[in-house]
Structures are given as C-alpha cells and as structure tokens.
Amino acid sequence: MRYTFLLYSDPADFADMTQEDWAAMQEVYGAYIGALKEAGVFVDTDWLQPVETATTLSLKTGSRTVQDGPFADTKETLGGYFVIDVPDLDVAMAWAEKCPAAKAGKVEIRASAMGGA
C-alpha cells in the first residue's frame, strides 16, 4: 500500500537558519532517505519551494479563479512530501515517526486511493 507523508512546518522556524544549519538538515534528511531506500520502501520525495511562490487555481465557480499563495491561510505550510510503499498504516506510522519533519512540525499520513505499486 502506498502512503504519502505530507510535511507541514512553520516557515518562521527556518528564518534564522545559517548555511551550516541547512547543511545539517540536508544531512539528516539524506540519512532518512537512505534508510527508506535500504528498507526497500522508498517511492518518491520532493522539497517544495516556499509558500510565497504558490499559486492556487479553482474552477468551482464556473470560471477560473487564481490566487497567489496557498488556499488555506495557516501558520504551518506544506513543505514537501515522501511517498512510501509499505504493508499497512502501522508500518507507515513507524516510518513517519522517524521522519525529521515530525520533530519540528507535523507529518500527515495519507493512504493512496490508487493502491500500491
């Protein structure tokens, strides 16, 4: 079963990070990706550009509506994701607990509606 981890954090938490801080964070995430790959559960990941670069589009009203930024006005924003393929939610939660994003923000776990690989 495929699960996507949606990684949420407060961008203010990263405002004062130095180049060394960023390098350390990349190392931690690199180790996490390595562990996922070694376990054979890694499918995909991406780190998203800051929320200020987002564009939200809707056709709900019958015509195109475009909004700069995210649709939701919240302090925490979606910063990236991981997709893994594991047997069940319990295993997915175990991997989510190991995700570095869980220590500073939140990891939303969503099962794929299309199943596994």
Characteristics:
117 residues; alpha+beta; Alpha-Beta Plaits; two-stranded antiparallel sheet; 6 strands; 30% helix; flat; YCII; YciI family protein
Order of helices and strands: EHEEEEHHE
**Can you tell me the overall shape?**
flat
Query: How are strands sequenced across the largest beta sheet?
Result: 2-5-1-6
From the alpha-carbon coordinates, what is the Rg to the nearest angstrom?
A: 16 Å
What would the average pLDDT be, to the nearest integer? 90
Question: Describe it for me?
Answer:
The protein has 117 residues and is an alpha+beta fold. The chain has a single domain (2-111), classed as Dimeric alpha+beta barrel (Alpha-Beta Plaits, 2-Layer Sandwich). The chain is built from three helices and six strands. The strands form two sheets. A four-stranded antiparallel beta sheet has the order 2-5-1-6. Strands 3-4 form a two-stranded antiparallel sheet. The longest helix is centred in the first third of the chain and has 21 residues, at 19-39. The mean pLDDT is 90.
